[in-house]
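As noted in the main text, all predictions were made from sequence alone. Below is one such record, for Ribose-5-phosphate isomerase A.
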Amino acid sequence: MSSATNPQDTWKQLAGAAAAELVEEGMVVGLGTGSTASHFVQALAQRIQQGLHITGAVASSQATYTLAADLGIPLTDLDTHPELDIYIDGADEIDPQLCLIKGAGGALLREKILASSARRFVVVADPTKRVEQLGHHYPLPVEVIPLALTPISRKIANLGAQVKLRHAGAAPFITDNHNFILDCTFPQGISDPGALNARLHAIVGLVETGLFIDMAQQVIVGGPDGVQVFQQ
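Prediction:
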């Protein structure tokens, strides 16, 4: 395990290492995106170097694909293996019902595809990601077709959100799917994630939301007291 620069990074490493222990011989594994998921990918690579054999891993982003390839993890895709045994990823916010906000890294569409293709979806996190209600610490990201940017922005604003186009420097941030991301802040938080998700999905041109509802079976939290596991 690499040396951590701060306690939060140590906690992420703890969660990633614990999640890597869930991977069993012969599994097809989904690899998440982001800082905590990258600790899992590194821990999985270590287990493979120590003799674990997996059938293959599917990456949720180009960044994760590159990291996994560099670490010698055998990669595959959903065409070859349309069902994953397990998908392990981080989250930006986690509520008591294990509903999530994801997408701060911009990979929410591919992450949700992998999560929905997995028999088991496990979230890795540090304690700062646990919240009583979604939407107070992170905006809700939604991926949209560029052509529909302005109409969609107006419709989401009508739902009570402050809507901001995500940028990378001076230019709009472009997802791996060549779409835009709108970061949507709901000043009072998100009281009913399921209802909001349904209303957003009714907007034509909106590709996917960062609300992951009834998808995670388990959350592994690394913290100052070690590892805690929360079940759905």
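The CA atoms of residues 101 and 211 lie 5 Å apart. The chain has two domains: 7-128+213-231, 140-208. These features were considered when defining construct boundaries for the mutagenesis experiments described in Section 2.9.
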